[in-house]
Amino acid sequence: MDWKRIRRIVIGRWNWKRPFISLASIYILLAITACSFADRIIFQPPPRSYTSELAGLKMMSEGGTEPIALIHLKAPPGAPTIIYSHGNAEDIGQNMDIFMEWHDAGFGVIAYDYPGYGLSPGISTETTTEESIKRVWDYAVAAGIPPSSLVIIGRSIGSGPSVWLASSVDPAGLILISPLKSAFTTAIPLPFAIFPGDRFPNLKRIKNIKTPLLVIHGENDRVIPASHGRAIHENSPAARKSFIGIPDAGHNDLFAVGPDEIFTETSVFIKEVTESSPSE
Fold first, then answer.
1. Which of 149, 156, 162, 178 is catalytic?
2. Is 156 a catalytic residue?
3. Using alpha carbons only, what angle is made at residue 179 by residues 149 and 155, rounded to the nearest 5 degrees?
4. pTM listed for this prediction
5. CATH assignment of 43-276?
6. Is 221 one of the catalytic residues?
7. Over the stretch 211-255, which tens digit does the pLDDT of each residue have?
8. Following CA atoms 132, 252, 258, 218 in sequence, which dihedral angle do they give, to the nearest 10 degrees?
9. Residue 86 is a catalytic residue
């Protein structure tokens, strides 16, 4: 058997261009895959955890063709309200304990499900989640809540639509919990973006957002490393900003490991930024 001939057929003749051609081919293949399937990979809706009987549930139809499932736990008169965007593999029903903690602290809470999550119909993409949070913002303002009383909170993938919204409206404050620098830099931990079509470029957007910022991140996070949260904090031009690292906390157990610190820090921040915001 002529092994040299077989090798030439399989891998071709060696020359200095071949490694670069191979790398370029791999890059093109990965780039096409990333652009084509990114949204399916990023968004992983879990089985629905609630029914239409969920406390405070509303199917909001204003501002779009598809309804959005949201809960609205109303604030006492004059108190701040949170607009909350949840993590990837969860829905609003799984976060009711968190919402009730903030509500019991005297804040209103408006939390919504992305398209395809919970009772919200549709398919989640970067665009549809951004459209959803803007509709929720408009709903809050139409309900009589001034922007100076609204604080945006985004957790994990929810940091994407939250940062995007903060770049186009004027909330009292922005809280990011376990945020990502961008979707691709989370999946491919390199110091530079290597693929086109990245989703949720939070690090790029935060550089133009002067809204007061609080970042909370688990120091032991293996899904979205704490370096992402620190980079966002460091690149924010906000005059009032802070980073809180929760020791021994990972990604999914953050609220279980550090609930007291999280709720204390967020409550102090919300009160400070809404009391200092000009009334409308």
1. 156
2. yes
3. 55
4. 0.86
5. 3.40.50.1820
6. yes
7. 999 999 999 999 999 999 999 999 999 999 999 999 999 999 999
8. -90
9. no
